[in-house]
Design goal:
The complex is a heterodimer of chains A (338) and B (149). Helix content of chain A is 33%, strand content 23%. Chain A has 10 helices and 15 strands. With 149 residues, chain B is an all-alpha fold. Chain B has one domain.
Chain lengths: 338, 149
């Protein structure tokens, strides 16, 4: 039996069978629905509780809706999907597990903090390229209010946010991957390493995640022999204004210059001045809804042809930060082309 | 960890300390002064009012505290206090209304986990340390005062 070696360079895998993103779905809360990217989201909720009695149930129902919607868009049924790869920020992947319990799909829970969108997309692509699945749904979600109560303060507690603080996006995104059709396809996947550069300020996640983003982007470019100019868009997940600037400057040390084709989903999703989101959006849902909405839809209409998605995650827990540990970061890159 | 990574770390520290925005200290101080001052004015108003009614001085301070705590709790309950605090910072945190906010807000938030494991257990997550060290230090000061009298 011949085993085809698909590894390229140190951390990158080529996916020669071109797993395709057949459809995407995005659902966001009311605040995101007032932001600059509002026209690209499929569903905008008027009520951030989505008719439920807790924010955890609300987040879970958003993920359920996103997955359901993406399956419907592709004209499939739940039983056509081989795996659901999903994760979120809540303890023990509460949202993903409780969304999956109502679905007739084998479920694999993934934790990558806010990097879950590209983590699940990457794993799904590898499963399809390896021949282990024909159709996979990759999904993730986050909710401002469920994240606040787990990681920070009660909603009504009066506190001032520092300018480096970010705003957790209420939203969920899902992508349906398959083998056929004229859709954007995945060409390379670069899984990142965990990077800890000594940041321990929970109000400055962008800075904590920037080194991981830099490392993964640099490694992807080295492995594939591409330059940043090759891509129409390089989109990091949720570094915000602060992390974005650090990433840009630190990548120069690797000899790569990011120009206007570099965006950060957290920087794009809100109007920071008007919506008072300080450094920008964050959370799993941030890169999920921007990738599934703004980027995917612009790939379909031909505006973007080559895109590098780099969702970034801050791997902290409410225990680790109280015990004074640093915030390790991670980033996974997926090259999508059409 | 290799040498190159160490160099990157060094460079990262340089860049991030340059890029990191700092809070507007002067602006925040002015806002805290104005809002904090206004909250104290309200307290003073009730103080003067009760004095005018001829209540004994000890009773007056008790009544003023009760009223201010009630106002803090009410504004938290109707969702105004957190917006005020986002503007005022320490100006709304330091007065007794802020203390009320720190107890009422977790009580509201964790109602979903039930009245025992939610409201009752989580009510003092923010105010707890203040109570422990506040009461603790007042006991110590009291003992010192007792023996030095």
């Amino acid at each position: 039996m011949i085993i085809l070696n698909k590894r390229v360079g140190k951390q990158t895998v080529e996916t020669p069978s071109k797993p395709r993103i057949i459809a995407t779905a995005s659902i966001v809360g009311p605040k995101e629905g007032e932001g600059p990217l509002k026209d690209y989201f499929d569903i905008i909720l008027e009520d951030d509780l989505n008719g439920k009695d807790t924010y955890e149930k609300a987040e879970s129902s958003m993920m359920y809706t996103a997955v359901n919607e993406v399956i419907k868009k592709a004209n499939f049924k739940e039983e056509n999907i081989d795996y659901l790869l999903a994760g979120d920020l809540l303890n023990q992947l509460t949202s993903a597990c409780f969304a999956a319990k109502d679905m007739d799909i084998p479920f694999i829970g993934l934790f990558g903090a806010c990097s879950t969108m590209t983590e699940s997309l990457a794993m799904g692509s590898l499963m399809i390229d390896g021949g282990y699945a024909n159709h996979v749904v990759a999904a993730t979600s986050s909710h401002f209010s469920s994240a606040e109560r787990q990681f920070r303060f009660p909603l009504e507690y009066g506190s001032q946010r520092p300018p480096t603080a970010q705003w957790t996006v209420t939203g969920s995104g899902a992508m349906l991957l398959g083998r056929e059709g004229n859709f954007p396809y995945i060409s390379y996947v670069t899984m990142g390493k965990v990077k800890d550069y000594g940041v321990n300020d929970v109000n400055n996640m962008g800075e904590a995640m920037a080194p991981a983003a830099v490392d993964t982007i640099a490694q992807h470019l080295k492995d594939t022999g591409r330059t940043p100019d090759y891509y129409d868009i390089i989109a990091t997940g949720d570094l915000g204004k602060v992390g974005k600037r650090i990433t840009k400057e630190l990548l120069l040390e690797h000899g790569f210059e990011l120009k206007d084709n570099y965006i950060d989903c957290g920087d794009e999703i809100f109007d920071h001045e008007k919506q008072k989101t300080n450094s920008g959006g964050s959370g799993c849902g941030c890169s999920a809804v921007v990738d599934c909405g703004y980027i995917y839809k612009n790939m379909l209409n031909g505006k973007f042809k080559r895109v590098l998605l780099v969702s970034t995650g801050a791997l902290l827990s409410s225990t680790s930060c109280f015990q004074g540990l640093n915030i390790p970061g991670i980033a996974h890159a997926v090259a999508v082309e059409i | 960890m290799n040498k190159k990574e160490e160099k990157m770390k060094q460079k990262f520290k340089e860049i991030s300390s340059e890029v990191r925005p700092t809070s507007h200290l002067l602006r925040n101080c002015i806002r805290a002064f104005i809002i904090g001052g206004l909250i104290c004015d309200v307290g003073q108003f009730f103080n003067n009012y009760f004095m005018k009614l001829g209540l004994p001085k000890d009773d007056v301070s008790g009544w003023v505290s009760i009223i201010m705590v009630f106002i803090g709790a009410l504004l938290t309950g109707i969702g105004i206090y957190d917006k005020l605090a986002a503007f005022a910072g320490a100006g709304s945190l330091v007065p007794i209304t802020g203390f009320a906010n720190s107890i009422v807000s977790p009580a509201m938030e964790f109602k979903r986990e039930g009245f025992i494991f939610g409201v009752a257990a989580k009510m003092f997550t923010i105010a707890g340390p203040v109570l422990v060290y506040g009461i603790g230090s007042s006991v110590i000061v009291g003992i010192i005062y007792y023996f030095s009298k």
